[in-house]
Amino acid sequence: MNVSRTASAAFTAEFESEEELREEQRTNLSMGGLRLTTSETVALNATLLVTLRGPWGGESFTRATVVAILPEGIALSIDGNPDEHVARLMARPADDSSDETIEKKQNIWDRVRALSQMEKILLAVKADRTERALLLQDNDPRVLLSILRNPRLTVDEVARLAKSSFLNFQIADVIIKTTQWMSNLDVRLGLIHNAKTPPAYALRILPTLPESEVRSIARAGSNMQLKTAALRQLQGR
Description:
Blueprint: E1 2-7, E2 10-14, H1 18-27, E3 33-37, E4 47-53, E5 59-70, E6 73-78, H2 82-90, H3 99-114, H4 117-124, H5 129-135, H6 141-147, H7 155-162, H8 169-176, H9 179-182, H10 185-192, H11 199-205, H12 211-220, H13 224-235
Parallel strand pairs: 2-4
Antiparallel strand pairs: 1-2, 3-6, 4-5, 5-6
Helix pairs in contact: 3-5, 4-6, 7-10, 12-13
């Protein structure tokens, strides 16, 4: 299992094989647990957001609580139905190894890349997931802002956008005013750790974070205004 820390209170765990996933299911997942091998320091009883990724790219997201500190990592109690998590992780993508599929993806890439910026802005509102994946890499904030108007946009895509180095005030403003997106912890973490997020917005997000995340910001945050606010919040609890 490859484990990486993506934020102070967020981890990604990727299973490298079906055998590894089945073994974790047998020993831990089936009982609502998860064992992460990591050298990262996490407080006991801390609340984490964990992204699980299966051997074929299937993903499942869960909130988890640290229940034990192990010599080689941490033990978690995870929310949600264990069988549903495993089913998502075992999902296999459609066969994309055929020449026809590869050619189709290449055609989409070439087509999107050849568009003018105005054409990309217009496409972003109605783009499908493959097209959105390409457009989310665009460095034009107007394109990214237009993607937010796409009715098929998913929360995980918004979380990617919240972490983008191309974030600007207008994009942050749309995200923070959308309750559905801001109810997702990964989106809030993406914004508060993004240097492009306006300080006033970061301060609004701070009270909504788990205490473990607030403590991390108070201890190691790079924005002094946010660090001071985090310290005051902790003193008031």
